[in-house]
Amino acid sequence: MNEPIRTQWQIRCAFNGFCKQALKREAMNAHRDTKRQQLREVTFSDLSPQEENQLHICDQYFADDEAEQSFVVGGKEITAKLLAEALHSLPEEKREAVLLYYFFDMSEREIAKFCNISRTTVQYRRTSSIELLKRYLEERAYDCTDW
Question: What is the spatial distance between Cα 48 and Cα 9, in angstroms, rounded to a whole number?
């Protein structure tokens, strides 16, 4: 009767030893991979100014234009500044819904999950924001039909 218990004990000990060896080897592999990665990495503080400048670019889309860029829609002139003002006039949660939907191409479900709100709340915020933006632009846009 003692024999099966002793066999179970031996099996447990063997499995315990196997697990410890596997963990030790995995730790050694992780340490080796970390060292290998550290040898290839360079901190930003170690970069020369020329190397640092190669890591980014500056958007010069409007920099060369003397006049502000604008477009005409529905007989109204909309400038980039006016559009930005319109977006800033929205409450933050509505602005976030609009930007995520139209500029980051997220679905209402994705926005709901991202913001931890219901999909119907996202839909309401987005549609009511469009109405607010429309009113804002209608009131402040320059009327081109007077030209």
Answer: 62
138, 103, 139, 99: which is closest to 122 by C-alpha?
99
Q: Could you read off the pLDDT of 58-83 as tens digits, one per residue?
A: 777 656 655 567 778 778 888 888 88
pTM of the prediction? 0.51
The 3-state secondary structure of 36-98 reads HHHHHCCCHHHCCHHHHHCCCCCCCCCCCCCCCCEEEECCEEEEHHHHHHHHHHCCHHHHHHH
β-sheet bridge partners, residue 77 = 72, 142
Q: Which two tokens stand for residue 11?
A: 């099996």
Helix (H, G, I), strand (E, B) or coil at 20: helix
- What are the pLDDT digits (tens) for 131-144? 999 999 888 887 76
CA distance 49 to 55: 10
